[in-house]
Amino acid sequence: MPQDRDASPDPTPPKLRPLPAVIFGSRWLQLPLYLGLIVAQAVYAFLFLKELWHLVIHAIDFTEQQIMLVVLGLIDVVMISNLLIMVIIGGYETFVSRLRLAGHPDQPEWLDHVNASILKVKLAMAIIGISSIHLLRTFIGAGNVGSAENTGYTETGIILQTVIHSVFILSAIGIAAVDRLSQPVPNRPH
């Protein structure tokens, strides 16, 4: 049973000494960072609507592959937006203050058990998803015209993008492995 992160703490928390109070209070310096990410989220929403409008207006003129590339771009924007939401909500909840969402019908399911370690794994998986979409767009774009030179993709660029994507995957596996190794082993009956 996950611990209720929104349970009310003791009605009167102990008063901190001045230095610990300043150090603990410094977490609020992250608030402008999260507010900035909300602005970035609005920019991505605008970009999504702009690209969607572009797709609708030019759908008759586009080839199937061009439509696929635009749709992959839309998916990419959505995945980046999801990443932003995880960082904004999960980071704020983990590092700044509780959101007190207990009982709210729209509370994200993952928020009940989020911590810095879980957040890192979720972010790594989101980055792999975003990288996968970029790599797929590159492959489709490079093969679209029949010649990588005509589309702006070089063979070296495609290979480097593939290597970078592979590094993201290996990094995520490493983060998940370290996280798993750092968890206490439950007692199992023999």
In short:
Helices cover 68% and strands 0% of the residues.
How would you describe this protein?
By secondary structure, this protein is mainly α. The protein has one domain. It has six helices and no strands. It has helices at residues 18-25, 31-58, 64-96, 116-144, 148-151, 155-182. α3 (64-96) runs antiparallel to α4 (116-144) and α4 (116-144) runs antiparallel to α6. The longest helix has 33 residues, at 64-96. The radius of gyration is 22 Å and the shape is extended. The model has no long low-confidence stretch (mean pLDDT 83).
Sum up the structure in keywords.
190 residues, mainly alpha, 0% strand
Question: How many structural units, i.e. domains?
Answer: 1
Secondary structural class? mainly alpha
Rg result: 22 Å
Helix content: 55-70%
Largest sheet: none
Q: Cα distance, first to last residue? A: 24 Å
**Topology as H/E string?**
HHHHHH
The proportion of strand residues reads: under 5%
| Mean pLDDT level | 83
Q: Count the helices. How many?
A: 6
Shape: extended
Q: Unreliable runs, pLDDT <50, ≥5 residues?
A: none
Strand tally is 0
